[in-house]
Each structure stands twice: as structure tokens, then as C-alpha cells.
Amino acid sequence: MFQGSGEIVVDIRLKRKDRTYRPTDILEGTLVVNTPEAWDCKSVNISYSGVYLSIGYHISAKIERGMMRNDLSKKIEFMVEVPGEAASPATEVPFEITPETLEYAPKRYGRQRRLRPFRVSGRLHSATVSTSRPLTGEVVVEESERPIKSLEVQLVRVETVSQAQGQLREATEIQNLQIGEGDVCRGLVIPIYMVLPRLFSCPTMVTPRFRVEFELNVIVCFAEAEGYTATQNFQILLV
């Protein structure tokens, strides 16, 4: 069942409902698709739960027992995993965070000149990640005159659903991982190792009706009273 701007229900009707099926038997029947509008399906999507979009699967069984007895029914939800495409050869993505590279550097508040020098470098081992593998990389604090409070890695899911009135877009943090606490040692290589949350992530999907994409933020939190955060954003592809 697909739930988003519309709903699609696939009804599986067995050819013989009065037969007891064993584990090795082949089920025969028909698929009945109920949808309020035209729909084209080229593949089965992985089970997924989001804000505007949810993809779920369940089996409903019903036994009709005659006029004088109540029918028996049971509904069970199950998870679907679809083997993804083979990830392309890993290409490292280097990055560097400095006051000059900040997209939202606080120039408008007149504090640009007072930003103390800092430099955080690192790399992602790949921007294309299999959902069954961890996202890995490393971060190094090369220098920072300000004390650092923490280093964090944030996974963000971006859902876009097309409707007649326009597009709905929602960015949601689905996982935040602290990889460094306190004023970490300068020059120390800190590993990034993030296991993707199974239910709230899925392979990147781009269709005419909806899109599910993912971003990764590397965040440096400073400890001073007027401290701020410095963030580096990456577009990542899940397969």
C-alpha cells in the first residue's frame, strides 16, 4: 500500500480459497489494483515510513464460516527489502570547513571580522552508500582558537510530493550521531561510522509523483556563550 498524495491498494485473490497451502506449494490467483487515478508500476519499493510518504505491505486473510458463525480474519504487516543496485566504485569526497567556506557566515550581524580562525577537514569515503552498509569517513580538527563543544554528523531525509496545488517539501532529521565530545585534540583523526536507520531510510527514489532524497551534515558546535555551529552539507545517494 502506498500512502502519499493518493492511495494504492493491491488485492491478492487466490484461485482456490478452500485449499490448504503448504510451504512448497505455488500460489495461483490474480492481482487487483485499486487506485483513484492512473498508475504505472515498474518495481516494488522497499518498506518505508516518512512524513508525507509511507510505503507499507500487509497480508489479510479471511475465512467465511457460514451464516450462523462469525468470519475469522487476520491482518499482518511485513517488511519488504529490495536488493539495491550495486554501488559504483567509491569516490572519496574531501571537505574543509573554515570561516570563509560557511554558506551562512554571520556577515549580516557584523561579526564576520570577529570570527576566530578555525579549520576542520575530512572526507567521506563515498557519497553513494548502500542501505545495508554503514556510511563512513573521517574528520580532523586542524586548528581552532575557539573551544569546541562537540562534533556531530546529521542524516537528513528530504521528501517532495507533487500535488495539483504544487509541491510539498519536508526536510527531516532522521539520525544525529555525536562523533566528538568536548574540545577534541587537534590533528586527531576521528572516524565517521553511521549505520543507516532501517525504517526511516530507503534507497533514493525519484519518480514523477514523489522524491525521497538524503543529505548529510557535518556539524561543528563551538562552546563559547555566543557560540555558533559551522555546518558542511553533502548530497548523498542511497542505493
UniProtKB/TrEMBL annotation:
Pfam families documented for this protein: Vps26
Gene3D superfamilies, sorted: 2.60.40.640
Stored InterPro entries: Arrestin-like_C, Vps26-related
Gene Ontology biological-process entries: intracellular protein transport
Top-rank lineage group of the source organism: Eukaryota
Family: Belongs to the VPS26 family.
Protein name (database record): Uncharacterized protein
Organism phylogeny: Eukaryota, Sar, Stramenopiles, Ochrophyta, PX clade
